[in-house]
Amino acid sequence: MQALACVRRAGLASIRRAFSTIQLFPEQWISASAECPQNLDSTAPKTFQIGKSVPCSQELILGLKFYSTEAALSGDKEEKDALLEFLDEGLENKRWEPVDAAREICQVLEKGDEDMEATLTQLGIQVTPHLAHMVLDKISSPSSALRFSEWAKLQAGFEDDTTTSDKLVNILGRSKDFETLQRVLSERSPTTCNYSTRTFSFATAWHDDPDMLKEVMEMLEQLELSLRIFAYEMFIAALCEENYINAALVALGKMANTDCAPRMQTYRPLIQVYCQNNQMDKVHEVFEMMKDCPQDSVCYHIVLSSLCNRKEFPRAAKFVRRMTNTGYKLDAIAYNILIRAACNSGRIESALKLFDRLKEEGITPYYYTYTHILGSLFQIKGFDGAHSFLIQHSGKDRKLDSSNYRCLIRVCSKSGQEQEVRNLMMEMNAKGLD
Q: Hey, is 276 helix, strand or coil?
């Protein structure tokens, strides 16, 4: 009680010392004298834990209730203002480390009290997406995860992101709470839908369980049409990412039998996984499945890149002929894939012929297409061959010229040709290039 009495007599420094030393435990609470103010509300005792200090923000809140009695604050207005200012300052200046903040929040969530949201607010923690990720990683209860997510969205300065939403979706999905899951998925905007393969990663555990896959797809069927299309596509992509092709085909078949017909991009994950498994016969089957869809250059790029990376150049050439026979024209990306493959295999003449054909067709090469050729020319024909190509294609695009010079400077520097590096830098300065 002496610490309480000194508050009225002491200045701000004494107040700080008094607050730093006051700490009540349950047994002290019970044995407190009749003179001790008892105007705490009924929830206050819940904040004490045997053998543990209460969080700083709770200590200050309890302190405010103790010292807000007429007996404690009957002194000068200046002393009252100083005390209240100190309390406000303490609440505002509390800085939580993410690990400590996550632990405190999880302890509140584990209790699952009716006033959980109020208790979370009293902690005075600034909720960030990173902190929300940490908390949701530690939560297994779907109801607690949902309540925390709803509470976090209402906190000042908090911006929900896709990772946070995906973590909540997977908690609900693993618990098979499909009704709540459907509602959470429906809250995403159809115009800026941000489903990803991570959104449906929970369902990959049921790739060999037809009944559970059926339940997931029945849940997807409850989504609004534009959301449903994205959801099916990301669901299929998540299964393909784990190489669960049979389950992906089941989902694709279900999608095709509804009013959200597969699009060209729906087939990309299947083409990707078949290419990774070197199942080109299956790739051709997928192209047959999507023959009525508008042509999608990305699908062609996936196959062409896969063949070139494995240095299967005859099959790549055959595939290019197949592409062109169906009306597809090689674009800058396709040419870059072919030129890079030719350069990596030491076929610089083939790469230069492809480059000339690209220019003849009026296609603008990417900067890194020049980079591939310059690097290969330097390795095969030396500095003079690479420098000649650089000069031949300079003078039309200053940014391209700067990029090409920097590329040649890098390869010269790596090979120890310091004099050539100095000469190139002098050329750049003379041309006024960055």
A: helix
